[in-house]
């Protein structure tokens, strides 16, 4: 049976403009928190320091990590996580897949797409996402097959700059206690204390949060099981790979410095049907489609 429905736009970019204000606000807050840490580290702790080597080394390390964190956040936010083309549940498209007789495929009733193995529908993105782990409001995007690496790097670099900030705050407090408070910062002592305490609270909070997220993501990759699959208790119908092979697949190849770079493109194998023009036709009504025996 067939019925007509309006086709959804296949461009992933169009989905980015359909997110609600709450998610956009969290994305803005993420960048503002990093910039606040940048302000306190530079203008409260490093620039007033009398030790030039200390300021240069810590300034270089902190700014490098902050830049990599924001770049990873941008890549995780803007990269297509593995969206399945919508409206491809047509007889013509299924025939083009050249499936074996008796094979069963599933249609998503929400976005009318043929769901690949391990794809799940995201209620926020309104799409089915390959190997979807979860939808993250902090990157305003799903974490899936194509952008999990960037999300892992984002959590790792945020955890590192949070730890670095905490260490510098502790050393700065010790320095100010031993010296005159009016000489250890270009701000007044009360303003300095408030700025440092706020940074300490922010760094501690995000160190705990991002460390847990980083560990969770690495565990999901190594066990070859996404967060949604673990949450739903789905039985593995796929052949699981070893931890090292799963890491190479998620990070785009054999171990190299590019694993730590948010600017390197993934070189994972992609479905060749992803870039093929979809055959036009009417949407199949059934959610479970079995290829008839010849």
Automatic annotation (TrEMBL):
Keywords from the named record: Acyltransferase, Membrane, Transferase, Transmembrane, Transmembrane helix
Annotated organism of origin: Oncorhynchus kisutch
Domain Palmitoyltransferase DHHC: 107-232
UniProt GO molecular function: protein-cysteine S-palmitoyltransferase activity
Encoding gene (name): LOC109885866
E.C. designation(s): 2.3.1.225
Enzyme class: transferase
GO CC annotations on file: membrane
Protein name as it appears in the record: Palmitoyltransferase
Localization terms from the record: Membrane
Record family assignment: Belongs to the DHHC palmitoyltransferase family.
Major localization class: membrane
Membrane protein topology class: Multi-pass membrane protein
Regions crossing the membrane: 28-46, 52-71, 150-175, 187-209
Domain comment in the entry: The DHHC domain is required for palmitoyltransferase activity.
